Amino acid sequence: FTVSKKDTKPFDGQKPGTSGLRKKVTVFQQPHYLANFVQSTFNALPADRVKGATIVVSGDGRYFSKDAVQIITKMAAANGVRRVWVGQDSLLSTPAVSAIIRERIAADGSKATGAFILTASHNPGGPTEDFGIKYNMENGGPAPESVTDKIFSNTKTITEYLISDDLPDVDISVIGVTTFSGPEGPFDVDVFDSATDYIKLMKTIFDFESIKKLLASPKFSFCFDGLHGVAGAYAKRIFVDELGASESSLLNCLPKEDFGGGHPDPNLTYAKELVDRMGLGKSTSNVEPPEFGAAADGDADRNMVLGKRFFVTPSDSVAIIAANAVQSIPYFASGLKGVARSMPTSAALDVVAKNLNLKFFEVPTGWKFFGNLMDAGMCSVCGEESFGTGSDHIREKDGIWAVLAWLSILAYKNKDNLGGDKLVTVEDIVLQHWGTYGRHYYTRYDYENVDAEAAKELMANLVKMQSSLSDVNKLIKEIQPHVSDVVSADEFEYKDPVDGSVSKHQGIRYLFGDGSRLVFRLSGTGSVGATIRIYIEQYEKDSSKTGRESKDALSPLVDVALKLSKIQEYTGRSAPTVIT
Ligand code: VG1
Ligand code: CO
């Protein structure tokens, strides 16, 4: 093949958000749009991470992925990359990409130094929906802000990119290596099975035999919803082939380019079929729900865990995994190096860290901040309220890992009881946890696609109000006389303890005397307008009061949040788009 130089002009708005660049497919389909971003990324990397390097290209299989793989492959060849690794049919979950960067070794002994992950995660897919791309680094984690800032600045000045137009398209449905010869030597496209490397890694972390016994118990029942995302490529192989679950326990596990028209976000609103099956939906059936249910998002880095008629909040989930990891999961047998959560995630994990005397970190939203801590050996388990849980086995959150972690905890708690009358259930585990550590009532209100200017003004007003807490407290007393006082308020700022870098404006916080918190943030993953997120949290230590309906317990604080922020006034919305 040969290399050609194409003239191009910058596009506005190619700034990577919380997790890469996400736009409508039609935006990505504009000539040069994807190429500009890819070349800007190559230009932001040190030369040896491009020339002669091995790069992974794959994603959740959403619409436009197959075109994107071909374009990126031709650009990689033209930029002197030595080989490109592609999951069969362009499918690799985000955690699998991270695992492959860290673990997979080419025939000549080389490893990948980075990856283009093609996903817009939990955003819908299809010709009129979202596409996305992000770059992950040599450690398997998302590019840090220093790199994404450089990529963005390159997109603003780009004038040309390199591409090998005459490199033939590679059939990515067929496993195998194709070698081409270019001006600088050979170039390989290696298409491999999407699941093998990832399964191998999972087997080094968990005790598959004990999970298998749990699944085989007649008292236990299991179901998993892939929401037609890439998780399906792993679910059958792991849950059915390896662990012996029945095929009928898998829902929506065929990956589709448009996620079957659904919204591949594992929460109580969008994972409707699973929610119904678990007895938490509106439609009641007389079939007894399974003991355990879970779902993953489009790129399978998020997870939702449910018990029979019982929802586990993601903030509780990470705290419970941390509290039980050492006994239940072989990978952690020698102890946890530390734990971390994102700032808006509830403080359930903080209480566990304190009780177990573990190092603890609070980082801004987005997985990239956990990576530095893990690379420095300071953190083993981490999570976000947004259905993200993971560990230092890779540098991304990991939906299937979280399911296996919960199954491991259930297997451990029931190890002497599998033939008994009644198993320890998901609900039992959570109630027990609240009994020991107290409960953090928690909810998040999302206002999607609101006017961007209005959203900015709302946030600016919340910052302005922070200058007088006495005025704020006067207002709060008028709204809800029994809510405790705000004792401090700020915009969250994070100084990375490893590299000293500082990230500012990471969310507006109001912290109350009784430990309650209100947090306001603008989303960095949407593709149109702005999304306002309000995070509402209240701590209850008294074990006689941890069994309330979350909605009732939080209702005064929710009222304060909505009125304090004047959300209806600013946005015209009388209700949020999604409540989780
Ligand atoms: C959201 C979540 C955040 C998560 C991010 C990426 O970001 O709040 O916790 O890390 O999505 O998740 P934002 O900026 O919209 O609040 V995923 O599954 O898109 O990789
Ligand atoms: Co995701």
From TrEMBL:
Record's keyword annotation contains NADP: no
Q: Name one GO molecular function term.
A: phosphoglucomutase activity
Task: Please state every residue range assigned to the domain named Alpha-D-phosphohexomutase alpha/beta/alpha.
Answer: 14-161, 197-306, 315-415
* Enzyme Commission number(s) of this protein: 5.4.2.2
InterPro entries the record matches? A-D-PHexomutase_a/b/a-I (IPR005844), A-D-PHexomutase_a/b/a-I/II/III (IPR016055), A-D-PHexomutase_a/b/a-II (IPR005845), A-D-PHexomutase_a/b/a-III (IPR005846), A-D-PHexomutase_C_sf (IPR036900), A-D-PHexomutase_CS (IPR016066), Alpha-D-phosphohexomutase_SF (IPR005841), PGM (IPR045244)
Please provide the Gene Ontology terms (biological process) for this protein: carbohydrate metabolic process; glucose metabolic process
| GO CC terms of this entry | cytosol
Transcription regulation as a keyword of this entry, yes or no, is: no
UniProt cofactor(s) = Mg(2+)
Keywords carried by this UniProt record = Carbohydrate metabolism, Glucose metabolism, Isomerase, Magnesium, Metal-binding, Phosphoprotein
Q: Where is the signal peptide?
A: none
Give me the reactions it catalyses: alpha-D-glucose 1-phosphate = alpha-D-glucose 6-phosphate; O-phospho-L-seryl-[protein] + alpha-D-glucose 1-phosphate = alpha-D-glucose 1,6-bisphosphate + L-seryl-[protein]; alpha-D-glucose 1,6-bisphosphate + L-seryl-[protein] = O-phospho-L-seryl-[protein] + alpha-D-glucose 6-phosphate
Name the enzyme's class: isomerase
What the protein does comes down to: Catalyzes the reversible isomerization of alpha-D-glucose 1-phosphate to alpha-D-glucose 6-phosphate. The mechanism proceeds via the intermediate compound alpha-D-glucose 1,6-bisphosphate. This enzyme participates in both the breakdown and synthesis of glucose.
Give the family, as the similarity comment puts it. Answer: Belongs to the phosphohexose mutase family.
Subunit structure as annotated in this protein's UniProt entry: Monomer.
Name assigned to this protein: phosphoglucomutase (alpha-D-glucose-1,6-bisphosphate-dependent)
Origin species, per record, is Brachypodium distachyon
Task: Tell me the organism's taxonomic lineage.
Answer: Eukaryota, Viridiplantae, Streptophyta, Embryophyta, Tracheophyta
Question: In the UniProt record, what gene is named as encoding this protein?
Answer: LOC100841901
